[in-house]
Protein: Amidohydrolase family protein
Organism: Lyophyllum shimeji
Amino acid sequence: MNDVGTAMLIRGTFVTLPSLAALHILTDYLLGVDETGHITHFSAANSPTSKALLTSTAVPPIQIPQGSFLLPPFCDLHLHAPQFLYQGTGLHLSLMQWLDEYAFKAEERLDADPALARRVYTRLAQRLIENGTGTVLLFGTIKEGTNLILADTMQRAGVRALVGKLSMDISSRPSYVEASAEAALSAARSFVSRCKETVAALPAHSRLVAPVLTPRFVPTCSNELLEGLGRLAAEQSLRVQSHMAEAHDQVEWVRSERGAEDIDVFDQRGLLTPDTIQAHCTFLDAAALARVADRGTAIAHCPLSNAYFSAAPFALREVLAAGVRVGLGTDVAGGYSLDMMSAMRHAVTVSRMREGKRRLEHAGENEAAESVAIDWKEALYLATQGGKEALGLGRGSGSFEVGAPFDAQQIQIFDAEKGAGIGALDFFDLELGESPDVSIEMVEKWWCIGDGRNRVGLWVQGNRLELSVLVGHE
């Protein structure tokens, strides 16, 4: 491959996830990146094209040491940025109570205090980077200015972020609501325009943030508002995010107040499209899932917050079998952890418990029935490639494909020089002098018990982000 414009070369072990059920470990590969942060070369280091690139370019390769590997960064498909303010509290309540007593108050507080908003969002960006999250789909607040602070903060931090200004003309909190459907639609249009303006002067490859229309969920949006947002999404080809069929009390509220199911309300207003990401979808039956698949809508699966608020587990295996695009989300603060590794682990745990229940309920029946459990490799795919596909971010996003943005996290699991595992990881055979080449068992061990001590690098669009240790205030 022509090396014109090569800005960075990286040589080492890469873990790729070409499909839901596949995980490949590519040892001693060479990757090239151009000035725009796109991958220009990816091949075995001993291939003719790699050898030619190594000898023809003056750029020295970054050598990833033995016992380490590069992996696509995580994509968090559902996170409430202002709720980071009170992460890890209030989870004893039902969903509708929790929104009243915690969520709305916190969001209103940030809307009233721009300095606090920037402080909270700056810290959030740092925590995302620490946890290996390179791409995130964010719910914001009602006020335009606060959401522009959120967009600016993510852009400055180097995190790829889709930012949603909340649209809600109905609220149980009188001081936290938009005046009317017309006012909410005007505000949504204004935010979309101004969010785009914040990065308009940058080269296209440097624009990391974009707006997304965000009707909070059916209980906070009139039909008039939803219809208007559907028209706006179609007019400007905008992504849409919301919550659908999340919790029993929420589903019953929609039935009693609207006389319909969530999915019907969204679908009838043009908000169930290939550009839509709906969080949760816990209470959808087979027919509804078929409609989601037919519309091309993606789902953000948030297993931890589902455990607290949904009263039922998400039918992940069945949803995947229906052909629906699925990614994982932390759902902070409905979920208490920003760590996508926690989301992956909970997704597997919930699915295994569903499978155990299925086997107990159907003991002695068709044992050849497909398991509803997922394994760790599938969860890793959903947390990386799956999220990028759900967002429709373009060619190769979430992979190491030529032409794709170079997004990666570097994971160190073993220190060959010291002969010891990193962090919580122990490899007793390697300590006796065996080869520290990365194996599938080593990656699985990291997936199960690894933590932030194993993450030593993060790149987004070719830029290496600072994995700083947070001490004191910004």
Observations:
- Residues 470-474 have pLDDT under 50 and may be disordered.
- The chain has 15 helices and 20 strands.
